[in-house]
């Protein structure tokens, strides 16, 4: 099937499909005589797997590790459990960061008295203050040394 049909069946853009190919999450498809990419059911299934992983906010590194496991049928699922445990830890940390961000935004919103000029706007004054807001980071946990590679 052509990339447009694959895009329609997965709900992913053509650009996203090509990006996953470039990042080696998706194997290169065969080429037709006219050099068009020719995708198979395997590509469709793999893209749906990737899409499900992305909907759980998994990183490309985590997805690659899961795909590696999926391709090596002889392994037990211990490494998959490790990946999910690590991802759950990341999600928990991210939730804590988001709660902190929420508190900062609530406090910032309280600075608004409403109806004032821009020069008197409490939010603008607060954001212009030298006091720095704590940046919330969105980093996935590195899986290096967490998963055995054969």
UniProtKB/TrEMBL annotation:
InterPro entries reported for this sequence: CadR-PbrR, DNA-bd_dom_put_sf, MerR-type_HTH_dom, MerR_fam
Keyword terms, alphabetized: Coiled coil, DNA-binding
Extent of the signal sequence: none
Residues in coiled coil: 84-111
PROSITE patterns noted in UniProt: HTH_MERR_2
GO biological process: positive regulation of DNA-templated transcription
Domain HTH merR-type: 1-69
Molecular function (Gene Ontology), one example: DNA-binding transcription factor activity
Protein name according to UniProt: Cd(II)/Pb(II)-responsive transcriptional regulator
The organism of origin for this protein: Thiospirochaeta perfilievii
Record gene name: cadR
